[in-house]
Amino acid sequence: MPRSSRTPTVSNRSCRPASSSCASSPGWSRSRGARSPSRRSGSGGSPVLPWLPDRSVYSSGSGIDTYDIAIFAALRWERQAVLGALADVGICGPGRWGGRLGDGRACLVIETGIGAERASRVAATAPVAGCFMTSGCAGALVPWLHAGDLVAADRVIPFDAAGRPGGALPAEADGLGAWAAARGFRLHLGPLAVSQEIVWTPSAKAAAAAIGALAVDMESAAVAAAARARGISFVGLRVVLDELGEDLRFVTDFVDPATGEARVGRALATLAPRPWLWRRTVRLARQRRTAERRLGAFLAAFLGPDRPALGLDAPAAAALS
Predict the structure, then answer these.
(1) Edge-to-edge strand order for the sheet containing 65-67?
(2) What is the pTM of this model?
(3) What is the tens place of the pLDDT at every residue in 138-170?
(4) What are the angstrom distances between the C-alpha of 283 and each of 108, 136, 277?
(5) At what angle do helices 116-124 and 220-230 cross, to 10 degrees?
(6) Could you please report the per-residue DSSP string of 175-234?
(7) Domains in the chain and their CATH numbers?
(8) Rounded distance, CA 74 to CA 259, Å?
(9) Residue 137: helix, strand or coil by DSSP?
(10) Do the Cβ atoms of 67 and 132 come closer than 8 Å?
(11) Which of these, 14, 115, 269, 314, has the minimum number of CB atoms within 10 Å of its CB?
């Protein structure tokens, strides 16, 4: 799949203190240009994040920062869509970025890679947060959802490798439909299925649709389970990429199963001798651009100054840790 051409501006300054777990992560060092985390800004900012107000970040007893919301994205373009909606974005460490929501509160963005195993591992080691959220693309399971349509989970239903549904996990969706409609967005609310396969067969999609699921992704169940274990809420926000009737099994020949990026050499080897796949590839690229644009527009409002209240605030989340 083609890479995104839109890349948000990212600061090199640290969003965590030098003694935190981010700073001690292998392969990451604190920027020399970062302001000292032990000094407050002249405007009375947080001692941990000088460019955030005091109410945004709280230090727990373990030395791990507490965020108002942690957002998990599997793919690079999904993560870029989230970062584009934040202010004062800074690199926290490998696969982690911190930023400021529209109301000044703190947000952590984590790129998980594809699949439940990676998402589960990352969510288990994430800092304390008042809410966990997944954001990214999904496959439609109903014929009336099209590329670019937005879906919020009211529950998450994991499926095993044999295609059997497991117990539903809770997701916070109350009031989100009305909030979105008041701002000119149409947000579909319903169950979100979670697959262990990158591409589901039409029969697997039909089985999930039969129990009412609107769309399918791969990571939301792992993050929702981690949120439930911590006693915090989970929000699953998805934008439709592929539609119900599309068969995308051909992309598994050249898409990296960890990152979702197209391997150029393999893509050429797969597509060059199969001209009947060219049109489907171009269609998918267009749908990807539509999905990214609409997700970014929604996130700009959803994470902006007028964002909906989600989960616990940072002090309450810190009290649970």
Answers:
(1) 58-59, 65-67, 128-129
(2) 0.79
(3) 999 999 999 999 999 999 999 988 888 999 999
(4) 33, 19, 10
(5) 30
(6) THHHHHHTTT--EEEEEEEE-SSSS--HHHHHHHHHTT--EEESSHHHHHHHHHHHT-EE
(7) 58-320 (3.40.50.1580)
(8) 7
(9) strand
(10) no
(11) 269
- From the number of C-beta atoms within 10 Å of its C-beta (0-12, 13-18, 19+), residue 12 rates as exposed
* φ and ψ of 15, to 5 deg: -110, 15
Secondary structure class of 239 (helix, strand, coil): strand
Parallel, antiparallel, or unpaired: how do β-strands 131-140 and 69-73 relate? parallel
- In angstroms, the Cα distances linking 226 to 49, 57, 91, 107, 239 are 26, 21, 23, 17, 22
> Is 152 in contact with 236 (CB distance < 8 Å)?
yes
| Mean confidence (pLDDT) of the chain | 80
Rounded Cα distance between 309 and 297, Å, is: 19
Tokens of 228: 């439930």
Q: Which long-range contacts (CB under 8 A, 24 or more apart) does 185-188 make?
A: 185/150, 185/297, 185/298, 185/301, 186/149, 186/150, 187/150, 187/151, 187/152, 187/298, 188/145, 188/149, 188/150, 188/151, 188/152, 188/214
Pairwise CA distance, residues 215 & 206, whole Å: 11
CA-closest candidate to residue 31, choices 88, 84, 92, 83: 92
Give the dihedral sign, CA 159/242/181/5.
positive
In terms of residues, how long is the chain? 321
The pair of structure tokens assigned to 211 is 């129990």
Most confident of 40-49, 77-86, 207-216, 273-282: 77-86
Pairwise CA distance, residues 169 & 65, whole Å: 26
In 232-274, where do the E strands start and end? 233-242
Tokens of 80: 């870029």
32 CB-side CA count, 13 A:
0
* Tokens, residue 195: 């697959």
